[in-house]
Amino acid sequence: MRRRHFVGTVGLALSFGLLAGCASQSSDQTPQERLVSQSESAARSMLESPDFTVLPLYLQRAHAVVIFPNLIRGGFFIAGEGGEGVLVARRQDGSWGYPAFYNMISGSLGLQVGGQLSSMIIAVMTEDGLNAIMDSQFTFGADANVAIVTVGAGVDARTGLNQNADMYAFSRNRGLFVGGALEGSVLQPVESANRAYYGPAASTYQIVQGNLFNPQANGLRAVLPPREVAVR
């Protein structure tokens, strides 16, 4: 097995602020439906942003994507609960599947500046990366066989990311993630949210395998770029 390593921040300069064009949320939505709507809005905002012109190119060839629409609140990374997000994996036919629910639990981020909301999209480029996330819980930087690059604004299609990483974490923050700031943070599935969204027998594995669906997530799936020719 080829040896990979945790890669630090690459060009992390981002527009920091509230998410633009947040999806309107009905008061009768469940928490899971609201999170899916927020993830759709965050994905659309970042994919259409001139600061992230390279992002669609990487999602076109990604095995999966993890979206955290609101990572920072009240000036602190949400310790304990973690930022709530979704993982969407590709199905065998290349189309996007339906979201599985995940939390990110604080690692070394600690006190942050602001009191605003931020978002992060993690493009999972390899089967190794997806399998690592699927292994109950995944700790950034703990698996020497999974390489992660943290990316900020200004890395465009002409510049590209000349790295052979398993994951690329695109963040909207300006100056808040430095060095290995993701290192030590934990991704873990939220099976109770999966059951609430899909039914009592739902699990992360079944969702990622493409065995479950909920039409409320079709807007999110439609926002994500379809599979195209690999970009390197």
Strand content: 15-25%
Order of helices and strands: EHHEEEEEEHEEEEHHH
Enumerate the spans where pLDDT stays under 50 for 5 or more consecutive residues.
1-25, 73-81, 108-116, 174-180
Radius of gyration: 16 Å
Give me the number of helical elements: 6
Strand order of the largest sheet: 1-9-10-7-2-5-6-11-8
- Which whole number gives the mean pLDDT? 77
- Main beta sheet, described? 9 strands, mixed
Any idea how many domains?
A: 1
Which structural class do you get from the secondary structure elements?
A: alpha+beta
Distance between the termini: 21 Å
Explain this structure.
The protein is an alpha+beta fold. The chain has one domain. 22% of the residues lie in helices and 19% in strands. The strands form 2 sheets. The chain has a 9-stranded mixed β-sheet with strand order 1-9-10-7-2-5-6-11-8, with helices on both faces. A two-stranded antiparallel sheet has the order 3-4. A hairpin with a 2-residue loop joins β3 and β4. The two termini are 21 Å apart.
List the helices and strands and how they pair.
Elements: E1 9-10, H1 31-48, H2 55-59, E2 64-68, E3 72-73, E4 76-77, E5 83-89, E6 100-105, E7 120-124, H3 127-134, E8 138-139, E9 148-151, E10 167-171, E11 186-189, H4 191-198, H5 204-208, H6 218-223
Parallel strand pairs: 1-9, 9-10
Antiparallel strand pairs: 2-5, 2-7, 3-4, 5-6, 6-11, 7-10, 8-11
